[in-house]
Amino acid sequence: MIRSIFILSIVLSTAHHSATAQSSLRIEQYRDSVVAYSYGLKISDQTLQAASRDALRQKKGFLPRLDLSGDFSVNFRDRWASSGSSGLQWLYPYSFSVQPGVIQTIYGGGNLRNACRQAQITEEMAALDRQFVWMDVAYAADYAYWNLAATQELLKATLQYVEIIRELKRVISARFEDGYIAKTDLLMVESRLSEAEYQSINAEKNYRVALHNFNLLMGAPVDRNVKLANDILTGVLLPARVDPGRILERRPDYLAALRRIDYENYGLKLAASPYLPQLSLGVNGIWRNTSPNFRGATELDGLAFVKLSVPIFAWGERRHTVAARRAAVRSSEYAALQARDRIIQEVRNAWTGIEESTVQVSASLRSLDIARQNLDLSTFSYNEGQLAVLDVLSAQLSWIQLYTNAVTANFNQKVSIAQYRRAVGESVP
After folding, report:
1. C-alpha 128: how far from its chain's center?
2. Exposed, middle or buried: residue 426 (CB in 10 Å: 0-12, 13-18, 19+)?
3. Cβ-defined contacts of 258-262 (< 8 Å, 24+)
């Protein structure tokens, strides 16, 4: 009888959700769909592209720079000037100059070199940040998949539980009408049925919320029904434990923290560069009108120059600037140590979760099998008049509780595995 009720509950659940025939979605396929849709990854791609362009821009600072400047002016009033023997002559009311120039920095106190290296490190950190975002997106996909599988299984179990109680109620109602049992038995079953129907409403809500989250992560319509290929109660292979010495080198966030230290060290040198000697040379040309402008004639001229700037005294400004940057370097070093401790904690907690949940899975599945047998025997014994209705209700309640425990344990195990894969940096692109 329990098997027939189980089949009936599946049919009711399928009809309730209007599931259409479709291919099963494996967790690997879902993860790929979420990664392809993720706006977080798209943002990281653009950040990486911007950092790459900025690094290219900084390299151009080592090349000579060509500039062009010019000015033009017109007087509102007539002007006159003496031109020797010709006496006073009228001046053209305009003046202009056009000055092209080529400038090459020979030494800028390390400014260009350090800024260029900072830009390169920023590009590397942007690439590492993209890998870290990918890890988070992959974990979110795994969590959403198993959460939907778990809520789907709990909904199916709750509907089956409701149907089991309804079947018992039909038997008790018939016996009550024939005068074989008291009304108290009927009232107890009706009360338990009402409670089970209430639980099924909560299970339905949890399933729909999980379905919405599942679909939104891959950009699908929120109410679209899906068929999962991976069942929550199906066992999975446990991951091999990664050597602790290799974990840090696989974590992009820790590698980015180390690169941040280099970035701040170059920032320290960059902060000191304005207070070092700077040398540049260049060539300037000029095209302008003659002065005074009697005939509107123009002339070409030019010059070559060498410019040396040596800061001498700035009231301790350099010392305070460098001290501030040293503090930033130490802060980045502490941040790297903090990231290391956090990663070690994540790895250890995830592995502990795998160990504990695996034990719970084994125990809960054994208990669930016992509860199923107990429910079958209790139902049969009640139908034969050998047990009270309270014993049957207790067996039913024990079955649904142990079913819930089995689903929860399997969910915790699979999520712990996903957490461990993320913690050790597995499959980072």
Report:
1. 12
2. middle
3. 258/336, 259/121, 259/124, 259/125, 259/128, 260/125, 260/332, 260/335, 260/336, 261/329, 261/332, 261/333, 261/336, 262/117, 262/121
Amino acid identity, residue 50? A
Half-sphere exposure of 297 toward its Cβ, with a 13 Å CA cutoff?
A: 7
Q: Taken in order 151, 155, 158, 164, is the CA torsion positive or negative?
A: negative
CB 361 within 8 A of CB 411: no
Residues 281 and 257 sit within 8 Å (Cβ to Cβ): no
Mean pLDDT over residues 185-195, rounded?
A: 89
Paired tokens of 399: 């079955």
Which tokens go with 406?
């089995």
Q: How far apart are the first and last CA of the chain?
A: 51
Are the C-beta atoms of residues 252 and 128 closer than 8 Å to each other?
A: yes
Is the predicted pLDDT of residue 239 greater than 50, yes or no? yes
Q: Is 12 exposed, middle or buried (0-12, 13-18, 19+ CB in 10 A)?
A: middle
CA 329 to each of CA 260, 265, 321: distance values in angstroms, whole numbers, following the listed order: 9, 6, 13
Which amino acid makes up residue 113?
R
pLDDT at 301: 86
Q: Is the dihedral of CA 374, 376, 378, 381 positive or negative?
A: negative
Q: With bands split at pLDDT 50, 70 and 90, how would you rate the model's confidence at 10?
A: very low
CA count, 13 A, side-chain hemisphere, 209: 9
- pLDDT, average across residues 257-276: 91
| Two tokens, residue 258 | 């180390």
pLDDT in tens, 63-73: 888 888 999 88
The residue behind tokens 């049957």 is 392
pLDDT in tens, 283-320: 988 988 887 767 778 888 888 989 888 888 888 888 89
The percentage of residues in the chain with a pLDDT greater than 70, rounded to a whole number, is 93
H helix intervals, 294-388 = 317-383
Give the span between the Cα atoms of 144 and 268, in whole angstroms. Answer: 44
380-401 as b/e: b if 16+ CB within 10 A: eebeeeebebebbbebbbbbbe
Q: Which two tokens stand for residue 36?
A: 């392809």
Q: 123 with 52: CB under 8 angstroms?
A: yes
The model's pTM is 0.84
